[in-house]
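Input/output pair, single chain:
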Amino acid sequence: MAVLIDNVPDAAGRPRHPEKAHRPDQPALRKPDWIRVKAPVSPGYTETQRIVRENGLHTVCEEAGCPNIGECWENKHATFMIMGDTCTRACAFCNVKTGLPGALNAAEPEHVAQATAKLGLAHVVVTSVDRDDLDDGGAGHFAAVIAAIRARCPDTTIEVLTPDFLRKDGAAETVITARPDIFNHNLETVPSKYLTVRPGARYFVSIRLLQHVKDIDPAMFTKSGIMVGLGEERNEILQVMDDLRAADVDFLTIGQYLQPSRKHHPVVRFVPPDEFEALQTIAYAKGFSMVSASPLTRSSHHAGEAFARLKALRPAR
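Output:
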């Protein structure tokens, strides 16, 4: 049993995280049995990898070192990460490279649509790096990807997991107008941890983004997620739930933070499964329509099945 995390230098021999190179090593807790997963070795995994490579695409599954990649790719469920593999921010939890990204690939929307068709995805999740270097934060590119998928795969439901579009006026409207089926933006952690965990972001900007989606299109499903194990207090998690419900967010995910390397934020605690179950019960009591909470929960893990259940609940609301 193993958890695969990519800490390998790139093809030119450069370290993956040069901005973290001079940070002191952080302690690394031994993973408990409930957090371990099988290494990806199935034929389905290999076929998914081939389709992704043939279309020149990046996936958050690989770039963020997701522990569920073996399971998801065995079933040909890949989460596409658009606008390159290099992020303009340097969050302390994230395994995606930081630096100055290259120019946008105008052919990428069509390549994402082609891969969606080849994988036979009934539900596709599209996320991205942060592109603070772009005037619209990449919102127009998100819209182009949505349009390309709609044209080639009209029956596929589309979930976008966007950046916060900090200081990018009109960016959120561009994505919302493209009408994804579900708009996801992760808070990642509690407000008190933002300066150390997510220093380039602002908690209430993220909350306002999610609220803004509902202001523009009350019928659009919204979703957000947090990690636990970063040193947050239980009452802080409950406050985040209340803030998200105040923004009328439909779907909440809660998963265990896993430390990509000793240069990243340490895991303060591995939260046991029974505590995730308790948080899920509380979240439902607070009014979320859909909640996924477990050690290995990630935003796009079983996203299609969860969205189908979420849609089925809408007439009853």
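The longest strand covers residues 221-228. The first helix runs from residue 43 to 54.
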